[in-house]
Amino acid sequence: MAEVNSGGGGGHGKHDKKRAKKMSTRIDMTPMVDLAFLLLTFFILTSTFNKPKALDLAFPAKPKDTDIVDKTKANGISILITGDDKVYWYPGQLKPESEVQKTDYSKNGLRMIFTNGNSKIIVKMNQLRKEAQGWNYAPAIADSIFKSKAKPIKGDPDALVVLIKADDKASYKNVIDVVDELNITDIGKFAIVDMTPEEKARLLTLK
User: Fold this and answer.
1) At a CB cut-off of 8 Å and minimum separation 6, what does 144 contact?
2) Which of 58, 71, 88, 121 has the least C-beta neighbours within 10 A?
3) Count of alpha carbons within 13 Å of 130, Cβ hemisphere only?
4) What are the φ and ψ backbone dihedral angles of 109, each rounded to 5 degrees?
5) CA distance 133 to 174
6) 151 — phi, psi (to 5°)?
7) What CA–CA distances, in Å, run from 33 to 23, 29, 41, 94, 95?
């Protein structure tokens, strides 16, 4: 608490002039320190810490070639990455009559292709995020529980299967850009495999 101390003001002699008494103030800061700790504790308990942004990659065991072929037959596309930031794609398996189309890494390119092919899974994932959303944008469930619920959704038989194939002219950045678009569009079934000689030959005709 604040205390006021009064000191002698002089005027001890008979003929000395009377001077005003000097007042000194001392403020006790103990209650203020307690209040500061209470406020600090309150903000720590009510704050939501930002999670580090990182590319979450969990590669499964390498499947057999026959398994990859069967999945791309049913519901899959192949992404062909080459130099100069060029990227191509085609659905299913490569056949002589297959049309290999050129695209780009923009939201109107790869993202639109993945969104159209994986629309059912995107709807289910958005519903799961809505259910997991808590008060004031804080997660209502733990991140591990959310991932456990999302895993069977992304592994649905109707989910899009994507094969990423890059030649020796492609950059790591292009591969990461494709994987980033896969995460944005909730595609959980994908693999990075070698480009076949037929696909390399087809790219030469497109450049």
Assistant:
1) none
2) 58
3) 6
4) -105, -100
5) 33
6) -60, -50
7) 26, 6, 12, 72, 76
The H or E element spanning position 76 is strand 76-81
Task: Please report which helix (H) or strand (E) contains residue 129, including its range.
Answer: helix 119-132
Reported as a single tens digit per residue, the pLDDT across 1-48 is 445 454 555 555 555 556 666 666 777 777 788 888 888 888 887 776
Sole residue written with tokens 């009510």 = 46
Distance CA 47, CA 42 (A): 9
**Residue whose C-alpha is closest to residue 154's, from 193, 189, 112, 119:** 189
Convert 172-181 to b/e letters by CB count within 10 Å (16 or more is b).
eebbebbbeb
Q: What is the pLDDT of residues 63-84, one digit of tens each?
A: 555 555 555 556 799 999 999 9
The domain made up of 65-118+160-206 is a member of CATH 3.30.420: yes
- Residue 130 carries which side chain, given as an amino acid letter? K
Type of residue at 12: H
- Exposed / middle / buried, residue 122 (Cβ in 10 Å: 0-12, 13-18, 19+): buried
pTM: 0.64
Taking the domains of the chain in order of start, what are their residue ranges? 3-9+21-46, 65-118+160-206
